[in-house]
Design brief:
alpha+beta, flat
Length: about 350
Amino acid sequence: MQNPLPETAPEQAACLLKNRARALSRGQRWTAAFAFGLAICAVGLLIGVVVILFLFEFSSISDGVLVGLLIGFLAGIVVCSPLAFALSRLSVSLGKRCDDAEERSDSPESFFVGEGTLATFGEDGLVLHSLSSTTSVTVPYGEVRFFSVCTRRAPAEKGTWSVAIEIPARYLSKTSPKGGEPPVLIQADLKPRLLEALSRHGLELIGDRPAPKGKNVHFTPLKKFALPNARKRKIALIILGMGAAVAVAGVPAAIFWNLSAGAIFLLLGLFVVVRQTVAYMRARALFVVYKEGVYWRESEGPDRMFLKWEEIERISAEELEREGVRYPVLTVGCLYGDYRFPRPKGAMEYLAEVFPEKLGL
């Protein structure tokens, strides 16, 4: 037996939005799968190019056949790589549109604040509930604060905007609250619909707002502090030495054995040397003081961020203990929480000289 059609206009609109969310979710999965397949194809074709280059010297296959395969493989790489990138971007866009449709199918004032968890603006408070459960928690508006947060991965005005929602821990604790627990932060994407909901309920959004589109602001670096990563630099030096040995071995190989093979060894070794030289230089964390804020980049992984002075309340020097070892850190306190970075030598002294108000001096 088929489910009866919704009778009221709001129910019909919610049903349409749910169907749209399901369609977008299917589209997102298919585009992600195609993007992954094309990326794998591009990698396979690149490996094929390397194999063909070796076959030119060590195989009896006709040069015409190998040239044809080489051109075909290169053409495939040229086609597959940009298509994979474009489809991956489309997949991300479809995912965001799917989430928005799911939010609006619940309520025009509902927003995702976690995996499957929605925050809905009610009459008297913020209602936290799950898509798959009927239970909910209502937090009175008087106990909730909203902060606009821009996650910047580079020293630039552009970034990803969101709204951090501060809620007392007792509303989310599964056990009896002990008292004195710090508030919990949950996060939602900053959307015009969310700003309108805050305005309708007379709620304040604390913090900055996105700059007008097209505004390009040049940030000015003042002082750079580096923290070398000894382990990564050691690995880079070992691989660099191996690459140099291969490059040197390519010279006698080209003279006394085979010119093409020696040239391949030489080029491969030089490529490794150049790459590991760059890796050695980049094997360091960076803390940079800008006129507009501070920038941190990890030596390992993609972690990096830029915090503007407008969102920084204070900076202090602290020590963290881990496995019995104490590490000096910089604690950068913002309205919505604290960030901690390893403290470079001389950083606090420079900050005290240039931005004493942020250190409480």
